[in-house]
Specification:
single chain, 267 residues, alpha/beta, globular
Length: 267
């Protein structure tokens, strides 16, 4: 499980899941803090994600994991610090956030598909309206990504006709159809029945093999130990551990992370 795997990514570079995939920085989070009123939900968070990295963000409920990942593409504003994505400042008022978000795929807990649109139309609409693609090109790309997640036969159905696992795979395909430079996952399996979790994780594993840069908030420690090359462990709004996968699972330094792992790995 801890053996390094090397493969070629979409950018022509070699990726290994035991260290940084590339020297090129995709996401830079520097001393970020955020408050909800008087409550500080993030405190001086710093983390860097390189091209090809698979970073799993974990920790107890309420530790700030989802908030952190949503600051990366501006879904959550922050009051202190700086975040750069592909050299663009997320917090700069002049930044075109919709355009930035079109380059950073986001997959949520609850799919967020348009219920009144067919599956194929769910994959086409943003390509046409945001990227300006022709309908024929958008449809071709949509079908290619539906095929990639094993759902081409569902193209003309509506989201309500699909299982939760299928809907989440559609959500992943929809994000990929925008040709993102990175993918953000916010607990993508937490709303699924246990038997549907693996089909979603399998798709995510395939993405890592293709060299996709990923940040993933998850409680799936088996997934983390299989595909992550870095682990960010959070507690009470702080990044407590930011290290390689092997360092985290084999020798977490903080007592809080050790407690977390003992509970997670014993169940």
């Amino acid at each position: 499980m801890n053996d390094a795997k090397t493969f070629t990514n979409d950018f022509g570079g070699l990726v290994t899941n035991s260290g940084h995939a590339s020297s090129e920085m995709v996401v830079e989070i520097d001393s970020v803090s955020k408050w909800y009123g008087d409550f500080q939900v993030l405190t001086d968070c710093t983390a860097h994600v390189h091209k090809g990295d698979v970073v799993v963000v974990c920790g107890p409920s309420g530790s700030g994991k989802s908030t952190l990942i949503k600051t990366v593409n501006g879904l959550e504003p922050f009051q202190k610090g700086n975040i750069m994505v592909n050299g663009i400042s997320v917090g700069d008022p002049k930044t075109n956030l919709p355009k930035l978000r079109s380059r950073v795929g986001m997959v949520f807990q609850h799919f967020e598909l348009f219920p009144h649109l067919t599956i194929i139309d769910n994959l086409m609409v943003a390509q046409i309206k945001v990227l300006g693609r022709k309908e024929s090109e958008a449809k071709k790309k949509a079908m290619a990504y539906l095929d990639r997640v094993g759902l081409t036969v569902q193209a003309n159905k509506y989201p309500a006709e699909l299982s939760g696992g299928q809907q989440q795979r559609v959500a992943i395909a929809r994000a990929l159809a925008m040709d993102p430079i990175a993918m953000l996952f916010d607990e993508p399996t937490s709303a699924l029945d246990p038997e549907m979790i693996q089909e979603v994780l399998d798709v995510m594993v395939e993405l890592t093999r293709d060299g996709m840069t990923m940040m993933c908030v998850t409680h799936e420690m088996g997934f983390a130990s299989q595909v992550a090359n870095r682990i960010i462990f959070m507690d009470e709004g702080h990044i407590v551990e930011n290290c390689s996968k092997d360092e985290f699972f084999e020798g977490a330094k903080s007592e809080r992370a050790q407690q977390f792992l003992s509970k997670i790995l014993n169940h």
